[in-house]
From TrEMBL:
<feature type="compositionally biased region" description="Acidic residues">
    <location>
        <begin position="572"/>
        <end position="591"/>
    </location>
</feature>
<dbReference type="InterPro" id="IPR027417">
    <property type="entry name" value="P-loop_NTPase"/>
</dbReference>
<feature type="domain" description="FtsK">
    <location>
        <begin position="256"/>
        <end position="457"/>
    </location>
</feature>
<dbReference type="InterPro" id="IPR002543">
    <property type="entry name" value="FtsK_dom"/>
</dbReference>
<feature type="region of interest" description="Disordered">
    <location>
        <begin position="541"/>
        <end position="608"/>
    </location>
</feature>
<dbReference type="InterPro" id="IPR050206">
    <property type="entry name" value="FtsK/SpoIIIE/SftA"/>
</dbReference>
<feature type="binding site">
    <location>
        <begin position="280"/>
        <end position="287"/>
    </location>
    <ligand>
        <name>ATP</name>
    </ligand>
</feature>
<dbReference type="GO" id="GO:0005524">
    <property type="term" value="F:ATP binding"/>
</dbReference>
<protein>
    <submittedName>
        <fullName>Sporulation protein SsgA</fullName>
    </submittedName>
</protein>
<keyword id="KW-0547">Nucleotide-binding</keyword>
<dbReference type="GO" id="GO:0003677">
    <property type="term" value="F:DNA binding"/>
</dbReference>
<keyword id="KW-0067">ATP-binding</keyword>
Length: 679
């Protein structure tokens, strides 16, 4: 209100054009500069009056000298909270004025050089303060530093100095220099909430970016208007047919600039490749953030996606035909994780053989360059290209509970060198959900709203100190997020952003995008496809052909798993060779003893019969796409065939020695080696 009334008064003064208005305008302009001149006049009057009382008085001389020293010292002490220049200027002014008054009172204001000192020194001191006041004013005539100092005093940073101020649309950046030896950048980080309170802004509108080369300098960034309040609807991918090496646009910052993310590295830009963590509580917009990222990935020409979703593709169903491999959790996810692990060395070997230190867009093309050849004679090899691979683990808390919190540790530590990116999505990336080793190997994070106590699980401490506060949103502002990733300037890490919003109108566009990916997306390539097939067998089929539906993983068609009713056999295939007229075999010891749980009872088959029975069981599991098994998967099989689970455990170990099974990271779980590979 006070600023408004002063502005109104200023406009009135400027608008007056008569003689009275001109005088009022000049007086208004002169008022701020009058105090130094009034001080000079007051000093002359004090000297003249004092000479009448204390002329030639020795006692008065002592008292006036002590008073002069005391006033100068008090001025120096009072200026301790101001700048060094202002403190020194004030002390010199007080010392000069009090010394002249003392001399004038004892010898008279007209004695010796005192009149000359007064007439020359007085105006000089007054003008020095006028110049100082003018220099403090900004271009538009407002006293910026005084207001800034007042603000900093309120928040406990009175000794800090405000430097150059840069004003952008909806963004003000001010350089801050703290008092040497007394204040650090941590003091500013702790004061951000109070600064927001003083400016009447939300805490997320204020952030501080420390200078990496200094412990007491940085930039204070203020965004006065929340441009993210209105959600922007997603209308389609930003770069259809582009390369995955180009930036992915997944939203916008609070100043309107695009929210960009890179997955592959770039040696020329000195940017490393990355894995991504998407974290946020239920209702924070994690699904929209994932859709933004996935649609950008699928719209690129040189990338394939392996996707695991225990939620049965509730959010991602329209995009499923464009995925190279899709599973719905459970055993299928176990197989996919094992396939990703097996694919890493195969892809790394291919890149090294073709002279790539890391994946580049050229690696996805047919290798016609002599710089990237696997032939020893240096001629172009013509090998098929190898696209970038994204392994996406949606709602990964489900997978981590089933496979252990370190299920992705090896992948996260090794996959980047193989031209692969791991995307992990979960609500709470705490140490009891995901191992600290895995979390440390996920350099990028899209941090949506969370519980205030969980902020440290999502964002690095330096980003939180700079003013990031995802706990302020919770699930009240869907889509609001912070993005930390290679390639993004560090001063952007604490800038709030918001992903694009998906509506029911987006479904048709998603279906068109999936169809485009089916027709124009990159094939997996022989290196990746063969490595996956060696682990997953027929569970890995690659992307569905255009115009076809992706078969549900783990489910066979009627010709494989169901009995035919129209003129076909009415018995199970495994019983097709039985002769119904043959006599039953003679009873064997143990046939009449039931099998329950872990009991070591029941009929014990011969070693040859045991291997044949287990081989048939493994073939059945393989035909169903269940490529990772353990004793618990044989429960129904044990009941049907009257064998115990400990017996099965022993047979599984024998099969592993024969090369039919491979151990996994989980104790007691085995990966089936496809029959052709084992042979």
């Amino acid at each position: 209100m006070r600023e408004h009334s002063e502005q109104q008064h200023e406009e009135q003064l400027r608008g007056a054009s008569d003689a009275g208005g001109v005088r009022a305008y000049l007086l208004h302009r002169a008022k701020p500069h009058l105090p130094p001149w009034l001080g000079v006049g007051g000093a002359g009057l004090a000297g003249a009056l004092g000479s009448l009382e204390w002329s030639s008085s020795a006692a008065a001389g002592v008292g006036l000298t002590l008073a002069s020293v005391a006033l100068t010292s008090a001025t120096w002490w009072a200026g301790r909270s101001t700048s060094q220049q202002r403190r020194l200027h004030s002390a010199i002014t007080m010392a000069a004025g009090s010394a002249w008054v003392t001399a004038a009172c004892l010898a008279g204001p007209t004695a010796g050089p005192l009149p000359d000192l007064y007439l020359m020194g007085g105006p000089a001191l007054a003008l020095s303060w006028n110049v100082r006041m003018i220099m403090r004013r900004s271009v538009d005539g407002t006293t910026g530093q005084g207001a800034d100092k007042g603000l900093l005093e309120k928040v406990g940073l009175a000794r800090a100095q405000i430097g150059a101020v840069k004003v952008d649309p909806n963004r003000v950046t001010a350089a801050v220099a703290l008092e040497a030896g007394e204040q650090t950048n941590d003091d500013v980080a702790k004061s951000l909430a109070r600064i927001a309170s003083a400016l009447d802004l939300p805490t997320t509108a204020i952030r501080y970016q420390p200078d990496p080369a200094s412990a007491r300098r940085g930039d204070l960034v203020i965004v006065p208007e929340d441009m993210l309040a209105e959600a922007v609807e997603w209308t389609g991918p930003s770069n259809l047919g582009g390369s995955i090496a180009e930036p992915l646009v997944i939203g916008r910052y609070d100043d309107g600039s695009p929210l960009l993310l890179w997955l592959p590295g770039d040696p020329e830009a000195e940017r490393n490749s990355t894995h991504v963590l998407i974290a946020g509580v239920s209702g924070s917009g994690k699904g929209d953030a994932a859709l933004n990222l996935l649609t950008e990935i699928l719209s690129r020409r040189d990338v394939i996606v392996w996707f695991s979703d225990p939620k049965m593709f509730q959010d991602f169903g329209p995009l499923r035909p464009g995925l190279d491999w899709a599973v719905e959790g459970g055993s299928g996810t176990e197989v996919m994780v094992e396939a990703v692990k097996a694919t890493i060395p195969a892809r790394t070997k291919w890149l090294g053989a073709h002279g790539y230190r890391q994946w580049l867009p050229e690696a996805a093309l047919t290798q016609t360059s002599t710089k990237h050849t696997c032939r020893k004679d240096g001629t172009a090899c013509g090998c098929p290209g190898m696209p970038f691979l994204v392994a996406w683990m949606e709602e990964s808390a489900n997978t981590l509970r089933a496979m252990g919190d370190d299920a992705f540790t090896g992948i996260s530590q090794e996959a980047r060198s193989a031209g692969m990116a791991l995307v992990v999505s979960l609500q709470r990336p705490s140490y009891d959900q995901i191992s600290t080793s895995t979390r440390a190997s996920l350099p990028s994070v899209i941090a949506l709203g969370c519980d205030e106590r969980d902020e440290g699980f999502s964002l690095p401490s330096r980003v939180l100190d700079a003013g990031a506060h995802p706990g302020a949103w919770g699930n009240r502002r869907p889509g609001y997020c912070y993005l930390v990733s290679p390639g993004i300037p560090e001063d952007r890490y604490a800038s709030p952003a918001r992903t694009f919003h998906f509506t029911i109108r987006s479904v048709s566009v998603l279906e068109v995008l999936a169809s485009w990916a089916q027709r124009h997306g990159a094939p997996a390539g022989p290196v990746t496809a063969q490595a996956a097939a060696r682990v997953a067998g027929q569970l890995y089929t690659g992307r569905a052909a255009p115009g076809t539906d992706q078969p549900a993983p783990g489910q066979a068609g009627a010709e494989e798993g169901e009995m035919e009713m129209d003129g076909g056999p009415l018995v199970d295939p495994e019983d097709a060779q039985l002769d119904p007229d043959a006599d039953l075999p003679d009873p064997e010891p143990g046939d009449d003893v039931p099998m329950f749980g872990q009991q070591e009872t029941g009929r014990k088959p011969s070693p040859e019969e045991a291997r044949a029975l287990l081989a048939r069981a493994l073939e059945q599991f393989e035909s169903e796409g269940r490529m990772v098994v353990g004793p618990k998967d044989f429960t129904d099989w044990c009941d049907a065939n009257n064998y115990s689970r400990p017996w099965v455990s022993a047979r599984l170990k024998e099969a592993a020695l024969e090369g039919r099974l491979e151990p996994t990271a989980q104790t007691g779980r085995w990966r089936i080696v496809p029959a052709l590979t084992a042979a």
